[in-house]
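[job 4471] stage=fold_predict status=RUNNING
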Amino acid sequence: MAIKVVKLCLSFMFNVVPGNPQEVIVPPAEGVAGGGTAYGWGDSGIHDSSTLRGTIDPAKVPSTDLVHVWCMPSTATVGPHDMPRPLEPVSLLAARNERESIQIAIRPKVYWGGSGTAGAVQVQCTDLCSPAGDRLVVGQSLTLRRVVPVLGVPDALVPLDMPVSLISLSPSETTTIWVSIDVPSAQPPGQYEGELIITATKADAGSAAQCLGKSEKHNLYRELRNCLEIVETVDGKPMDEVVERVKSAATSLRRVLLSPSFADFFSENGPVDMMDEDAISNFSIHLKLSLTVWDFVLPATPSLPAVIGISDTVIEDRFGVEHGSNEWYEALDQHFKWLLQYKISPYFCRWGDSMRVLTYTSPWPADHPKSDEYLSDPRLAAYAVPHSRVVSCGDTAEDYLQREVEILKTKSHWKKAYFYLWDEPLNVEHYDSLRSMAAEIHVYAPDARVLTTYYCGANLPSLSCPSDAPLAPNNLEAFLKVPEYLRPHTQIYCTSEWVLGSREDLAKDIIAELQPESGEEWWTYVCLGPSDPLPNWHLGMRGTQHRAVMWRVWKEGGTGFLYWGANCYEKATVASAEIRFRRGLPPGDGVLFYPGEAFSSSHEPVASLRLERLLSGLQDIEYLQLYASRFGRDESLSLLEKTGMYLGPERYTHEHMPIDMMRSEIFRTCRS
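[job 4471] inference complete, writing structure tokens
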């Protein structure tokens, strides 16, 4: 009964309107159909809005006459000059503990605003509900962010108000909204449906509340209130799981009830005429969202550790916090917790002389409760242990290291620990210092893992293997012999993908030099290289090129990945200062998120499209791991090739469809 009540109330709250006609017919977008995502052709026809003349009142004109709306996949680059496509319902596939995203593009057909704007639209979301009454709640599992250009390239994802947002549209430009659905690990599998409602409104509307007509507010308020009162009466009935679902529904409904949309509500106009109500409702564009949640649960701890550096000096400079102060700890804590949602393992870092680097995941000593909270978090796949104290406290470096290691060795999470001591050592002096530091660590913990990054190749401007002590007659052979030179002082050999270029055979040569029986691993990294068309995270690269970074790691057999920096933009001493990429680096290199203050009054970091695609790539690995566990790694590799998703560093899909084909095939063959 309770479930029927919720569904009844929702049916009153939101009228479902079939696909809305669009004005221009163009060929379907590359990679936006097939598999678990359908964005392709439909029966949308041509809708002529040329008859609109003079002053336009958006409250009296269907929104389909005022704006184009269409959908694009998360790998698409949707710029301000992108032209409209047909609008289709969205159908997505997601595992539990997975995030799946799409993009909604909006472009004005005519102008009804003023002061340099084409007009404004109100964007409203509903919860996604299953026939059983389960739901994915707006503002928790479903979020909206506006795609904002950086150096003219769509990249920053600025959060929008939920569940209703007001967005100003620029004349002759396409505005893009990034829609993300986070499926909790315990979410019941099933088919979930909801919708996005887009309504043209006056550009000078001061708030979402003003965007609603009084009749709409009256009807919505009445139905929400009735639904809430009825649902709350199920408390105490012998249907525990139903009660929990209904309580969740009541919470979300109450939040909407108390939103600013109803702050000034008291109807003075009596009952609303149903014909007028339907006409007003039908002015909106209704985009149907359908999500299939299947029974696979992505592991809480990622199968492949992706360790990403966060510069503490950038945080100190930009946010004006003193190293070691309470504000400093709070700033680092905020960054660490925010980044965990991306299934990466953050470490903080600062560089010293000759690329010596101090890296640490927890800024607190090992015996501090916060350290145990950080390092035992199941979402963390690996953590960096500092070789020396992060915040000076008077004790000697040797005493500090011994005490830290002895404490950490007793913890169950010690197996996730690694020491990253030197970034790309260049000569014998660097390597000798590195080996000396590693030897000291191994005195206290023989099983400690030391990670060393290095690169060396015939076409690179400098060599990061001992340049004054040749190991082999040519650069490539010297590169392959670095493990022999560093053994037993390094356990994780982390090489640049720049060295490999497009030669996958070199990966086999590198792995052949290692001793996995002794705990040696091969990790990789990208930085200012490799460049286009190889996978990397530079600004302006294709969406599939960003996502393919992780496909490459998995196919080549790496067991981990490192990225040198995610917040390494140019120095600034004001949080809201303009973001500038570092000179001499490709745009986007070393920057995967931005300070929130650069875009709004929010203090929460703003993700980039590239960070979201990093997450998608890591999730793809979990799908491939599942398939390999059922059918073997060779079959997983074969699936990559059969779908056309990834064949090699220069041969990966530029379209989204093969990604959906891979995911759908794994869903079809591996679901319970």
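[job 4471] summary: The first strand starts at residue 67 and ends at 73.
[job 4471] exit 0
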